[in-house]
Every structure is written in C-alpha cells, then in structure tokens.
Amino acid sequence: MNAGIDFAELLAYTADETQRWKEWFTKNPSALDLPIDIADAGTVRRLVKHIFFVELHFSNMLLGIPPADFESLPASTLVELFRISEEANDRYQKFLATARAEDWEAKVDLGPRLSLKPSKRKCMAQALTHSMRHWAQISTFLRQQGLKQDWNHDFLLSKAME
C-alpha cells in the first residue's frame, strides 16, 4: 500500500471540483462576468480560463504537444470554457496511464520567461496546486459577493479517496 496521495487521486479531486463548479456556474452564470483583480484576469470568466489554460499547457507539455494559445481558446460559453479543462484532464489521464518512472523525472524547458527546467513530476504538482489555489481564491471572492457554493471544497470530503 502506498502511504502517500498520488497524482491520480489529486487529479480525481480536481476533476470533481471542476464538475461541481460547472454545475454551480450553470445555475449562476452572471457570476462569470463579475470583475475580479486576481492574476490580472479582469473577470471571473478570464480567471477560470486562466486556470484551465494552465492545466492544458502543462498537460500538453507532459505529452510533448505544442502549447495552446490563450486568446484562441474558445471560452464564450460555459461548455466551451469547461471543455478546456476536460481536454487537459483527458491528457493528464493519458500521461498517467503511460508514463514510466524515467518519464516523471524527465526535465522540461519552460521557456525564456521562466528559464526553469523542472521535472515532469514537479510540473504535474504545479499544475494541480495552481488550480486548487485559484479555485480557493474564486470561492472566497464569490462568497464575499454573497454567492455561496453549496458544497464543501475540502479534499477530505471529496470522492477521490473513497
């Protein structure tokens, strides 16, 4: 038995949270267009797109797929917006299913902007924690606007560890 939490479990948690957010925004669509000052996004919709873009960026990188362009990703509808995350999740699943030990330790070049060469393992951790951090910010912001979510966001209460 592995005593640690693995990426498959964290990915299941983030996928479950993302689905809950999709359902919540379906009931509260105007919340997507609220102004927000996090990550220079401007609106909640653009911050959600930022979250999903980063997920897609790292999932592409893990599989050796060229990076997507943020501005060209369709996100005007809820379906388009959340499809970005679904695509990234599919790619993460593919990497998890096929990666060998040496694949996890392979270094990737993050480009001239960051000039880092982390392992794919570290990139996967970054992508997942990046999403969790921004969703926590969105959750707090929306509650401050009087828009509470109807579920608990804690990993402990997710279906990922059942």
What does this structure look like?
A two-stranded antiparallel ribbon has the order 1-2. The protein starts with 6 loop residues before the first helix and ends in an 18-residue tail after the last helix. It is globular, with a radius of gyration of 16 Å. The model has no long low-confidence stretch (mean pLDDT 91). The protein contains 5 helices and 2 strands; from the N terminus they run H-E-E-H-H-H-H. The chain has one domain: Up-down Bundle (Four Helix Bundle (Hemerythrin (Met), subunit A)). The protein has helices at residues 7-27, 44-63, 78-98, 101-105, 120-144, and strands spanning 35-36, 42-43. It has 162 residues and is an all-alpha fold.
Keywords:
Four Helix Bundle (Hemerythrin (Met), subunit A); 57% helix; 162 residues; two-stranded antiparallel sheet; globular; mainly alpha
Write a brief caption for the model.
With 162 residues, this protein is mainly alpha-helical. The protein is built from 5 helices and 2 strands. The mean pLDDT is 91.
Question: CATH superfamily assignment?
Answer: dinb family like domain
Q: Strand order of the main beta sheet, please?
A: 1-2
Total number of domains: 1
Inertia-based shape:
globular
Helix amount: 55-70%
**By helix and strand content, what is the structural category?**
mainly alpha
